[in-house]
Write a structure and sequence with these properties.
The complex is a heterodimer of chains A (26) and B (478).
Chain A: H1 4-24
Chain B: H1 2-24, H2 29-34, H3 41-52, H4 55-59, H5 61-67, H6 78-94, H7 102-110, H8 113-146, H9 150-197, H10 202-212, H11 224-239, H12 242-250, H13 254-285, H14 295-303, H15 306-343, H16 350-373, H17 380-406, H18 412-432, H19 440-457, H20 463-470
Helix pairs in contact in B: 1-9, 3-9, 3-12, 3-13, 3-15, 5-13, 6-11, 6-13, 7-8, 8-9, 8-15, 8-16, 8-17, 9-13, 9-15, 9-16, 10-13, 11-17, 14-15, 15-16, 17-18, 17-19, 18-19
Classes of the chains: A mainly alpha (26), B mainly alpha (478).
Chain lengths: 26, 478
Amino acid sequence: PFGLFLIFGLLVGAYLVWMYWVERRR
Amino acid sequence: MTVHLIVFGAYFTVLFAIGWMSLRSTHSESDYWIAGGKLGWLVGGATLAATHCSAGTFVGTVGVMHSVGWSFGWLVLFIPVSYWFLAAVLAPRFTRQREMTLPAFIETRYYGKGVRGLAAVIILIATVVYIQAQILAGGLIANVILGIPMTWGMIGFTVVLIVYTMVGGMIAVVYTDLVQLVVMTLGAILGAPLALSALGGLGETLRYAEVVNPLTFTWEAMPPTLLFTIALAFALGTVATPEKLVRLYAMKDMRTIRRGVLLAIVFATAINLLVFIVALAASVLFPVLPTGDLAMPLVARSALPPILGSILLAAITAAMMSTVDSLLIVAGSALSHDIYGSLFAAHASPGRRNLINRAGVALVGSAPLVLLLSGIGEGELVQFIVLLFTALMGASFFAPVVLGVFWRRATREGATAAMLGGVTATFLWKLFGSEAIDPVLPGFLCSTALLFGVSLATPPPPAAALEPYFGSSPSSES
């Protein structure tokens, strides 16, 4: 074997970065 | 058996108690349909995740893991991507004006009661049939756990669901969803290690899985191109379903939505991944499986340690109930708020509306059971619509909702054509089209093309319809 867990983690990390960015620029 | 009865009795008592407490904090129609639009990120996110995971999440995966292998699991990555789209792209504009239902948004943006009625009818028909399949799964679970006839199980689940949803409305649904998400999460978190240890750990399980099916960890059975089109189909269906969109109206503000959606992404994806691991172990324990929906309840009862079987069955029950109660609110509001309330009883008193709303929930809740008991329920048409449910939603509502808040020129006639054309194209593709392409894709392309074409051929929308979404003063953005 099964990358799926790695990419899920990366996507959640990317969401956190986006959330931080969108709330900082206001 | 006795233990199971006591556990289920206690479980239903908790649900009824939440329903009763919610009744005491429901003071207006907005409280009843969208929990007053005051949900925080914890309950808001939990209800999104609990609604997302249905009986199919648990029941269907064992068979698929068996026939396709682990590459099917990559489909779950559509969850983070499509929910991010919901929170980042759609929600900021969609929630500028708070409504109580998706058809109400359609009326505000597309300035017509007819187009609102059309949206409500599509939602009503698709949802009632979809609930039928979930109630059927509930009857199966009751039969496996309690040994009672399936019919009794279906009646029992329907009564419990109608009682707490009808009494407590959306507030009851979101707080019971929180409880049911905890049950599902516990089931998945306890289930995966227990299933793996039954086989001697993760490494051993992975090795056995490859022996049973050498293609388990390859891309052969499910090529990435096919995975991608299926994921796209799920994504279109997920973003545009009324039960997701109405939760955006139920949450307090954009800041809350961003956090709630993150919570939903983490829980919905993690539960799916853990269920895949249980399914992988089950496919090793049961190299020859009965096909279809029987697999998971049977595996839970006979192959796994008894405690694990009970935990998993509780999780399946929670997944089923938390999806059906949300659909009851969506279908009930389509019937009483959008069709009856807006077309026939626009000036009814609050007390009378209260009665109509609760009657609507009871009616849409009992319709699936009546259809099932009269034998209309198990026909091929039901299976057909269930498979098409997300496709129908994606094809009917994605274009009118998303383009409606991004393209000023979208008109009432364009939205009507998009919904009717999307439904028609989805059905026709399912009947006559290629099996290799999910029907939501032609349905979605057809409805998008119709929205553009018909909108450009008809008079532009009045300024009043655009003001809430394109105006300079958003009323509830933060």
